Amino acid sequence: MLEADFVIIGSGSAGSAMAYRLSEDGKHSVIVIEFGGSDIGPLIQMPSALSIPLNMSLYDWGFASEPEPHLGGRVLATPRGKVIGGSSSINGMVYVRGHARDFDHWAEEGAAGWGFADVLPYFKRMEDSDGGEDGWRGHGGPPH
Q1: CA 52, CA 83: separation in Å to the nearest integer?
Q2: Strand partners, 30
Q3: How far is CA 76 from CA 65, 69, 119, in A?
Q4: Are 98 and 23 in contact (CB under 8 A)?
Q5: Are 41 and 47 in contact (CB under 8 A)?
Q6: Do 134 and 144 form a contact (C-beta atoms < 8 A)?
Q7: How far is CA 100 from CA 93, 112, 114, in A?
Q8: CA separation for the pair 31, 86 (Å, rounded)
Q9: What is the DSSP secondary structure assignment for residue 7, as one 8-state letter?
């Protein structure tokens, strides 16, 4: 039987980052559980194949939104990765921070510690950027 201090469900960007951070001091053990298979293969590794894994049940859970009233009741596809690497493996490795006002709104609504100024250091810690305005991008983090 396996034992660990932490069990993380999903080996996407968030799950993998959490596992790394929780175990980097060598004091804690972590088990990561992923339903999907490997992300090795041309349909994921080849940038020009970007849209193909988004439409394959092998790599995508096939989730959809509820009908959107401001879009004429349309249901929107919401691709989510079902593979090691999670959605980052099927979205072309696109990385976008949430809008600063969204974080600030959450803090105003009572989510203490979730304002943009609060989360910016965490974004910077995980980045290794060669560009961007000083004070906004990080250097030395895992993703380049």
Answers
A1: 14
A2: 6
A3: 5, 11, 29
A4: no
A5: no
A6: no
A7: 21, 15, 10
A8: 16
A9: E
- Residues 4-60: tens digit of each pLDDT: 999 999 998 889 889 998 999 999 999 999 998 898 989 888 888 888 998 899 999
| Alpha-carbon gap, residue 22 to 16, rounded angstroms | 10
Q: Are 93 and 100 in contact (CB under 8 A)?
A: no
Token pair for 51: 């849209």
- Distances in Å between the Cα of 47 and the Cα atoms of 28, 37, 43, 73, 137 are 36, 19, 8, 32, 25
101-115 confidence digits (pLDDT tens): 999 999 999 999 999
Question: Rounded to 5 degrees, what angle do the CA atoms 53, 59, 61 make?
Answer: 110
The full 3-state SS of 38-55, as one line of letters, equals CCCCHHHHCHHHCCCHHH
When the pLDDT of each residue in the chain is averaged and rounded to a whole number, the result is 91
Q: Is the dihedral of CA 108, 109, 111, 112 positive or negative?
A: positive
How many residues are given for the chain? 144
